[in-house]
Amino acid sequence: MNIYLNIEDSVRELDSKLLLAVLAASRNHDVIISDQESIIKGLERKLLTPGIFHTKSLTPGKMKIIKHSKIIDTGCKITSIDEEGGLVDYGYERMIKLRYSAKTINQASAVFAWGPEDYKTLKKFFPNYSKKIHMTGSPRVDLWRPNFFTYWNNNFKKLNKPFLLIPSNFAAGLSMMPFYDRIEMRKKRGYFERQPEYLQTLIQWESEQFKLISHFIEAIKHLAHKNKNYNIIVRPHPGENVETWKILLDKIPNVKVIRDDGASMWIKNAFAILHNGCTTAIEASFFKKPIISYIPFKAYHSKKLANDLGQKVTSLNELKKEIDNIFFNNLEKKKQKKLNQPFPKIIVKKIFVDQKEIAAKKMINVWENISNNSLSKSNNWFLFKCNLKIMKFNGILGRLLKKDGKNNNNFKFPSFEREKILFKIEELKKILEIKQKLNCDFLSDRTLLIKRK
Predict the structure, then answer these.
(1) Distance in angstroms (rounded) separating the CA atoms of residues 88 and 97
(2) Residue 407: is its pLDDT beyond 60?
(3) Alpha-carbon dihedral angle through residues 48, 54, 60, 61, given to the nearest 10 degrees
(4) DSSP state of 175
(5) Using CA atoms, how far apart are residues 212 and 206, in angstroms rounded to an integer?
(6) Residue 440's beta-bridge partner residues?
(7) What is the edge-to-edge ordering of all strands in the sheet holding 291-294?
(8) What is the pLDDT of residues 213-266, one digit of tens each?
(9) In whole angstroms, what is the distance from residue 367 CA to residue 116 CA?
(10) How many other CB atoms are there within 10 angstroms of residue 67's CB atom?
(11) Nearest to 361 by CA among 26, 6, 119
(12) CB atoms within 10 A of CB 327
């Protein structure tokens, strides 16, 4: 079977897609991990034969519906798990209104749910398609489980000091995209049609985010100047401009701005997490890390669920005291006790974890059940690779002819780091006890083929 895994945001999605690909390839499937454009053009030009096209969402924008129609016309079957997850808010109905419709559910052959809440809500809103909806859990969550802890340890280069991790989730004023472009994008995707009040909510939310940015910069300065025992790692959201953060935090001692690799690696190796409204609070709960939710003012559009997972603090003095308590206490004994503690009920509602079988295996089982012979035809990988080179050349030529001065680098999906990816694949094989030999062929700087030898 051919499996095409589309990546939009590599720091968020790459590791889980590698997990899916390694498992699927060990079961004799050919797997492509690539950007959406490369896969779709390969299918439309008949350089790729039909397969499972797995995408990050079923958002009912007009352009997405058209794209999915074209993919289906090539003979592919579409499946999806929403990578946003709706994890930081209570309830799932708002996510349904913004990111699903009967039309996009109809286009999909399978929809995967993170846990009981989205599974039940999807079935309630789309009863006619209930058989398509599967509560598998997410492969991203697989990588938060204890048997994958070595994956994050072995991929991590130790720093000279322990560190406090501050994952940023303030996209607004720090976004790589100007406000106009973000509004235009949402308009094209139909967000304002599906939820008329969304524009006003977005404006209010962004104004609160600017205020939060100011408070967090103040907090970072306060903590950095008051201690020499640990570093502070600020990890920008994938949509944020790293260089802007570096300017804002310039010359503050013991502070580094780093967005390398997945968030899980940094969470696993931090001594504590300081955040406001960030999904990393949920990840940190799996890694049994201390979580501090800094809430310096009352926000009307806060991510309440994420903040409820942490120890809430509201002032700079309280913040420093809480972090010092965590840092200077004997954490090793506490960690051993914490590993056996049950998850908070709010996480159990959001995330399904089957102790007997990981989510990635469940998803591959579904793919195998909906597959047929037409999805297993051989591909001419040489021709596809040549087409990718032509696409890259045409892209470079097009940018030179436009001379618009714009930076066209894909900041969400930079070029693969080959050695790092090959190392990760070997680590996954060890953890999963995969004995089969796999071929890993980089067909382009953003396209990876993994299959059995």
Answers:
(1) 16
(2) no
(3) -50
(4) B
(5) 10
(6) 450
(7) 255-257, 231-235, 163-167, 272-275, 291-294, 311-313
(8) 999 999 999 999 888 889 999 999 888 888 999 999 998 999 999 988 888 999
(9) 21
(10) 18
(11) 26
(12) 16
Which stretches of 143-278 are DSSP H helices?
A: 149-154, 171-174, 179-188, 191-194, 198-226, 242-248, 263-269
DSSP class of 195: -
Q: Measured between alpha carbons, how far is 87 from 284 in angstroms, rounded to an integer?
A: 13
Q: How many residues does the chain have?
A: 453
Rounded alpha-carbon distances, angstroms, from residue 206 to 202, 209, 214: 6, 5, 13
Full strand arrangement of the beta sheet holding 30-34: 133-135, 108-113, 77-81, 52-55, 2-6, 30-34, 447-452, 438-444
- Give yes or no for residue 330 having a pLDDT over 70: no
Q: Say which amino acid occupies 149.
A: F
Q: List Cβ neighbours of 431 (8 Å cut-off, separation of 6 or more).
A: 147, 148, 150, 151
> Considering Cα of 66, then 70, then 71, then 72, what sign does the dihedral take?
positive
Coil/strand/helix, residue 437: coil
CB atoms within 10 A of CB 19: 25
Weakest mean pLDDT among 133-147, 239-253, 402-416: 402-416
